[in-house]
Specification:
single chain; alpha/beta; two-stranded antiparallel sheet; 8 helices; about 20% strand; globular
Amino acid sequence: MSSHGYETGRLNLPFVGIATFGKYPYQQDWDAIEADVAVLGAPFDFGTQFRPGARFGPRSIREASTLFSFGHGGAYDHEDDITYLPSETTRIVDLGDADIIHTDTEQSHANIEFGVRKILAAGAIPVVLGGDHSVNIPCINAFSDEEPVHLVQIDAHLDFVDERHGVRSGHGNPMRRAAEKPYVSGLSQIGIRNVSSTAREGYEDARSMGSDILSVRQFRKLGVEGVLERIPAGKRYYVTIDIDGFDPSIAPGTGTPSHGGFTYYEGLELLDGLTKRGAVVGVDLVEVAPDYDHSGSTTTLAAQLLLNFIGRILHHRK
């Protein structure tokens, strides 16, 4: 038998073992979180108004993330000449999922909020895998005892509905709920386009409540640097990424696809710039619905984007 790999431990290829996020350690005890970043699944999709399936997002993103778990000591980026996620100092844990109670939005959201509060209490950065965009509501609720945050949203849809038929916590409501919070100092809503889920009044309300709204075309006209200059500098940023902010040609696996979206590098360069402009203190990535993702490109995009983003957050935090 060849000794290759055995002298230094297992080779541990991406398709081997348990599919935690990035193959980082699983921490079942939420009172023993010792990490810089903690990943929490929020497999809730009862807030959807069209195609369900985002409840399988966390599991599918974790599986896709194993592709990027090769043990090269980290992720060397030759363009930046930086090794992101260096294995000797990177502390990331996967907490598994918040418990979801079928048909019970209030308790399911409370369970997600509980998990995010545990992460914050441990001094780690929460990275939440959705789930539909309503899971952002408990994520933002969990920041009530923290210093103010500026919310940066990448999305095709404004998600600023106040109430519709009594529904205030669906996936069309989260940015409105966030804007109501005294500790959310403002919103940058980027990628908003075309036939949308919010009427004109929603846009007027959003702007009156401190929101800056840009479409993909406006983003491209300004360029990444121009867009970053519109986001308040030196702030604490909470970043919420709806995968439908990206073009369905690369991210078809979502409940409400909208053509005209971002490419991968547009998203990455915006996120990279944010990590240099202020402190990213929380992230969620939502609306990945793998049953509509026949090539696996959407889950790969989600995992690749998150791992690159986390690597930059940790690097520039130093």
